[in-house]
Amino acid sequence: MASAFAVAGARINGAEDGTGNAPKPEFFATFQNGVTYAVEAKRRQNWKSPFELHSGAFLDELHGWFRDKLYKASKKALENPVYWFELGIDADIRPDQIDRLRELIVAGIKAAEEITVGGTPPSPAYVFVTNNQDLVNNGASNLGFFALLVGFGMADFRDGVVEIETAMDNHDKHRPMRWVHDCLSLVQRVPNSFEGVPDELLDDQGQPIETLRIGRLIQYPRGDGSEGVGRIREIASMDQEATVVVVDEKTNQQIFVKVPLTPQEAEAAKKFGNTIFGKPEGPREAITEALRFYDRMLEIYANFDRTSLLNQIRWHYNFAEFQKLDTDALRIRVAREITKSVV
Q1: For residue 118, is it left (φ>0), alpha (ψ between -120 and 50) or beta?
Q2: Which of 2, 107, 232, 319 is deepest in the core (most CB within 10 A)?
């Protein structure tokens, strides 16, 4: 549990590091933005009802357990609380059962929002729900991992349709916890630098096919209609195409270019993420939604100077207003505008 926070970039401190006599959590996690979260963890020791997702008895027990644990955790009045509940279900959770289990969990946590502590609503909290069968059964044949992140009492952490700027605001606000969830779900299928070749990128004779690669020279169309040559610096794939950062060989200018992926590249990227393109990095999920693409753009722009950032959006009708932003705000705005232009 603590390792997921550590991988996400948080500094971990034990509860004994807290001051005062107030109730303490399992541990504290401080992220680079300076925010410290108090992480409370509880595990279900045994279940009276069999694991049957359409059973009223199992549903009542599940929702009752969430209500009890959320009430007790809320009574601690932790600052920036994160509640981590391990289900401890000794059952093979099949892929076709995942959606139903998620629905039951979300419904149970939402129903518990009506509780009060001392006559007042509980503090909003992030709730992680996991299930590790091997924690309750050493001989478990299925070590499949289940993880879900739910907002407890958080109106801006709900599924639903909102305007994209609002969605990006909410995504920025909740990014640390979303990243913890992603770190939980990462499957180490490839090394940090992809040195091998996945089957998807081999031809019928087992030889590697030509693909996009970090560091490769490509031709691209300039804005004036001429053809430029640039070296690929970054690649962010999304579905059937990739957005490529190209550094022009003559001007050294950085340009964004959209490149269609071959069916083989798209399939490999879906399975292994952007590591197939040769960028040394940790395993990364394939980007299939706008907010994931936005995250990737923020990473790419992290080291851009102000002039380079402005060059990315000179075409925008609000360019004059964007010039007034400080560099940090400009970096976010550029990432957002590029994302909106792609999705």
Answers
A1: left
A2: 232
Are residues 174 and 212 both part of a single domain?
no
62-84 burial by CB neighbour count: b if 16+ within 10 A, else e?
bbebbbebbeebbebebebbbbb
Joined tokens for residue 146: 């289940």
As a whole number of angstroms, the distance between CA 123 and CA 120 comes to 9
When the pLDDT of each residue in the chain is averaged and rounded to a whole number, the result is 83
For residues 342 and 264, what is the distance between their CA atoms, to the nearest angstrom? Answer: 21
* Distance in angstroms (rounded) separating the CA atoms of residues 60 and 39: 26
Residue 193: inside a domain: no
Find the domain containing 262 and state its range. 199-342
**Predicted pLDDT at 185:** 61
| pLDDT for residue 19 is more than 70 | no
For 102-125, write each residue's pLDDT tens digit. 999 999 999 999 999 999 999 999
Asked if 172 and 291 sit in the same domain, the reply is no
Residue 275 lies in a domain: yes
Per-residue pLDDT tens for 279-314?
A: 544 434 444 478 888 888 888 888 888 998 998 888
Measured distance CA(104)–CA(335) in Å, rounded: 36
